[in-house]
Specification:
The complex is a heterodimer of chains A (113) and B (111). Chain A is built from no helices and 11 strands. Chain A is mostly beta strands and 113 residues long. In chain A, strands 2, 4, 5, 6, 9, 10 and 11 form a 7-stranded mixed β-sheet that branches. A 4-stranded antiparallel β-sheet of chain A has the order 1-3-8-7, with no helix packed on it. Chain A is globular. Chain B starts with a strand and ends with a strand. Chain B is globular and about 40 Å long. Chain B contains no helices and 11 strands. Chain B is mostly beta strands. The chains are: A mainly beta (113), B mainly beta (111). Chains A and B meet through strand 5 and strand 10 of A and strand 4, strand 5 and strand 9 of B.
Chain lengths: 113, 111
């Protein structure tokens, strides 16, 4: 497809489990971003990739959160030992360059029981 | 005080009305201004992308930036029920990738 693709679209898991969220950016986009959107809150920046490197991880809430990007394309956001406060929609975006507009996927809706 | 302020609404208007959505901001270094539309259970969709001050028009949508007042607006003409969504403003500085988002305004266009 032409847009940013995220999977799964929904994930329900028990507290304490690990989860992996996947993002497939627009073909050719070198920059990739992860955001978190909670009810009534704005989008919260998590991490930025340029190619396979993550020069800015400042938004990751804790060391339970990690992300990687391979081949300058697909990215995975991993949350270890999930907590109920991790429940949110996790959005991925990509752009063709730093000052180019960011295009979003439809997100993964994560629910921690 | 948040860097970007946006009235959460909801804003209800009749079909065919002109809608005005607004954001204020405090960081004078912002130079890029974006408007996104987000339908329920979908990701934000880019509507408008502007640099610095002035107006930009695309179909029924007009974006305005007033940097002296630190105020941006999105106007929707001839609003349709399909325009019912949450509208997010976002801003960034030159040379940076980090967008600062408003919390979104929920719009309802009544048929």
């Amino acid at each position: 497809g032409a847009g940013v693709s995220q999977s799964p679209s929904n994930k329900v898991t028990e507290k304490g489990k690990d989860v992996e969220l996947r993002c497939d950016p627009i073909s050719g986009h070198t920059a990739l971003y992860w955001y978190r959107q909670s009810l009534g809150q704005g989008l919260e920046f998590l991490i930025y990739f340029q190619g396979n490197s993550a020069p800015d991880k400042s938004g990751l809430p804790s060391d339970r959160f990690s992300a990687e990007r391979t081949g300058g394309s697909v990215s995975t956001l991993t949350i270890q030992r999930t907590q109920q406060e991790d429940s949110a929609v996790y959005l991925c975006a990509s752009s063709s360059g730093v000052e180019q507009p960011q295009h979003f996927g439809d997100g993964t809706r994560l629910s921690i029981l | 005080q948040k860097e970007v302020e946006q009235d959460p609404g909801p804003l209800s208007v009749p079909e065919g009305a002109i809608v005005s959505l607004n954001c204020t901001y405090s960081n004078s270094a912002f130079q890029y201004f974006m408007w996104y539309r987000q339908y329920s259970r979908k990701g934000p969709e880019l509507l408008m992308y502007t640099y610095s001050s002035g107006n930009k028009e695309d179909g029924r949508f007009t974006a305005q930036v007033d940097k002296s007042s630190k105020y941006i607006s999105l106007f929707i003409r001839d609003s349709q029920p399909s325009d019912s969504a949450t509208y997010l403003c976002a801003m960034s500085e030159v040379g940076t990738y980090k967008y600062i988002f408003g919390t979104g305004t929920r719009l309802k266009v009544l048929a």
